[in-house]
Amino acid sequence: MQQSGGPIPAYNSNGLGLLPPDAAADEAEAPLADNSPFRQSWQKPYQPNMTGTDRAYLPPGHTLEGGKRGKATGDYEAWRPD
């Protein structure tokens, strides 16, 4: 059992040994390799986070996308307490 306040052990990608404390964060940030035994068939290919770049996702109506949203379709019914 782990004592409260202690570090949480981190295992390397093959699960056979402990990582040094400074290596745990680096390994957690790396994407899984295509041939990794932990890769699942339903997982999408890795894409880096584009937040803050010119390639960041901007939803319709965002000020940098023209600031105009499509009109509401009228099929939304707001909840009202009885």
Percentage of residues in DSSP E strands: under 5%
Instruction: Report helical residue fraction.
Output: under 10%
Taking the sheet with the most strands, its summary is:
none
What's the number of helices?
A: 1
General shape: extended
Task: Give the end-to-end Cα distance, rounded to a whole number of Å.
Answer: 50 Å
Structural class: little secondary structure
The beta-strand count equals 0
Mean pLDDT: 75
Instruction: Write the H/E string, N to C.
Output: H
Low-confidence stretches: none
Query: What value does the Rg take, in angstroms?
Result: 22 Å
Account of the protein in words:
With 82 residues, this protein is mostly loops. The chain has one helix and no strands. It has one helix at 24-29. The longest helix is centred in the first third of the chain and has 6 residues, at 24-29.
Task: List the SSEs and their pairings.
Layout: H1 24-29
Short overview:
By secondary structure, the chain is mostly loops.
Please tag this protein with its features.
little secondary structure; 82 residues
